[in-house]
From TrEMBL:
InterPro entries: LOX-like_protein, Lysyl_oxidase, Lysyl_oxidase_CS, SRCR, SRCR-like_dom_sf. Mediates the post-translational oxidative deamination of lysine residues on target proteins leading to the formation of deaminated lysine (allysine). Residues 41-142, 171-277, 300-399, 409-516 form the SRCR domain. It holds the Pfam family Lysyl_oxidase. Its cofactor is Cu cation. PANTHER family: LYSYL OXIDASE HOMOLOG 2, LYSYL OXIDASE-LIKE-RELATED. GO terms for molecular function: copper ion binding; protein-lysine 6-oxidase activity. It is found in: Chromosome; Endoplasmic reticulum; Nucleus; Secreted, Extracellular space, Extracellular matrix, Basement membrane. Disulfide bonds join C67-C131, C80-C141, C111-C121, C242-C252, C369-C379, C485-C495. The keyword Metal-binding applies. Belongs to the lysyl oxidase family. GO terms for biological process: chromatin organization; collagen fibril organization. This is Lysyl oxidase homolog. It comes from Scophthalmus maximus.
Amino acid sequence: MPAAQFLPCCAIVLLVLSKLTLAQYEHLGYPPGYGDQEIQLRLAGDKRKHNEGRVEVFYNGEWGTVCDDDFTIHAAQVVCRELGYLEAVSWSPSSKYGKGEGPIWFDNLHCTGKEKTLSLCPSNGIGVSDCKHSEDVGVVCSDKRIPGFKFVNTLPNHVENLDIQVEDARIRPILSSYRKRIPVTEGYVEVKDGGKWKQICNTEWTQFNSRVICGMFGFPGERKYNARVYKKPTYWDFAVNCTGNEAHLSNCKLGRAAELKTNGTCAEGLPVVVSCVPGRAFAPASMTGFRKAFKQEPLVRLRGGAIVGEGRVEVLKNGEWGTICDDNWNLLSATVVCRELGFGTAKEALSGGRLGQGMGPVHMNEVECSGFEKSVTECFFNKESVGCSHEEDAAVRCNIPAMGFQERLRLSGGHNPYEGRVEVMVERNGSLVWGTVCSEGWGTMEAMVVCRQLGLGFASNAFQETWYWPGAVSADPVAMSGVRCSGTEMSLSQCLHHGAHLSCAKGGGRNAAGCSVSAPDLVLNPQVVEQTTYMEDRPMFMLQCAYEENCLSSTSGQVPANSYRRLLRFSSQIHNNGQSDFRPKASRNSWVWHDCHRHYHSMEVFTLYDLFTLNGTKVAEGHKASFCLEDSECDEGIEKRYECANFGEQGITVGCWDTYRHDIDCQWIDITELKPGDYIFQVVINPNYEVPESDYTNNILKCRCRYDGHRVWMYSCHNGGSLSTETEQAFPGLLNNQVTHR
């Protein structure tokens, strides 16, 4: 065939193929020419982080949703990668993130996971669905972004509510005074788009935008800065539109396209600069004025969290700490809590007692915040908490500033990242070197701080001699000694220590730590103590086993066998409100057999019982070895796991409690020589911190006790940390007898 005739023939064939290509969409319900159409995705909905939510699609000028019928992790993969995330973690049916509005654009999606956009996945056809919004699908994407991801806005500028999707964001310090400061609080706001860092033009920048940026980097507020010292750089293509209550830049909406000059500079403005105000825990020592403003006791606190900035939310009301019910709990309310406590915005709003269950009242329910309140106590809430239990306690995880703590500590030689010899980075002769920590005094509290500093959760073990974890040979010399931690510090360097003048009598540091993402939390039931207290006179000849186990006062050794001892008896009901089982530190092969009582002690000192005068002087004492750690009873739906019979495993399961009845040996204080009067009764569980817990403050129980020589009364019993500081100070002797570390 001649070339002149061949070309028209090919053109006809190509035209037919083109029409057939477009026609393949028409039988699926797509309009003619659908192959030329574009869609845009976003994540929306309630109680979500920036990388999760209800899948929403913008098409034909309107936002709509996706039905969960036939939806799979492959479809979730396409959604997440189209939004710039590395991969999908999971997906959720049945409108987990709330019901959407508008059309249901996709139904019965069948994706392979390799499609570049959701519109290329086979489906019933766009807009063809028999679903309701109760079937709206949601996805959870990984935190990590696709390296080099380029955000492309395929929609007109007038389209609202399009989420910002960029590879990364940062505050880059420019002034020398801020480059040296940790944390970085001032500098250019830069977004990483297409693998390149770019500044944002400040033409439409507002204070609300700065508030969001500071919040996502862990700062509760923003402040003014000196604009004259900053230069003009390279700009991003878009403006940013935040309302101020978003938790993350990704929750803000895309503004208009930036008007840039031919040389790439901002047409009417300068690059965006933010200057953030750090919370008091992260403020430099020189910022004393900021610290003084927080002398008043806060109305909100976090409990049960493994690291700084996370925990169960507790509020103070009428002098008593209580929890918040998780009904309607979301990121807006969680962010108010985080900012109030000196952190940034909330990363997560947790429900269902995820960070442990509290004790005492539930003070707030159905909390609704605008995001601009100074305190969560200013938010609207339902004062009635009918139907709420501590299984519904609300919690938060907050954004905190990057302090660089993790770079100055490491666990070396362990079998996994959660264990190993503790090695610290210190400055020696102008150089940064790695070294070990002196073993003397090393214990659970120090290991707790190590795990917190590394972001690895709670301590599970603290070892002083660890020859089976050799660590790095170059780090063998001792670099830190005299370490004493209270357990609340953010880094090991904040604990008391010897500084540059090392002193390690034993020589060498073989300390190690094991970390765990969860921990138990033992709490005594104060009502049980009040209701079961009584007095008994018991003959000495019936107390021989108790005498052998040192459960009587020291004077009992000089009295005849037919004499009597006066005992203050009571029951202890010890709940495990944490997130993992309470297990004794000692392994079963090292438990001690007590022939007199015919049982094994897994912990020689499990509880301490003491009586103090009102000025804090101890006048009587008792102690309780762990006769038998087991599950006496459990909450509904939880099975008992530990039973002491037949040399069984010992422990207390999460959601269960161990009851030491008033009528068993050593469940008393010997008050034979006690004079009549008013006293403070105190019980301390796990007093030597042998077993790591998420919260030690509630291991103490205190009561008022009155003894007239014939009768005894126990009243006003409460757990440590359950009352306000003012109320506890009004409780005589309460602060004088606090348990101290070692």
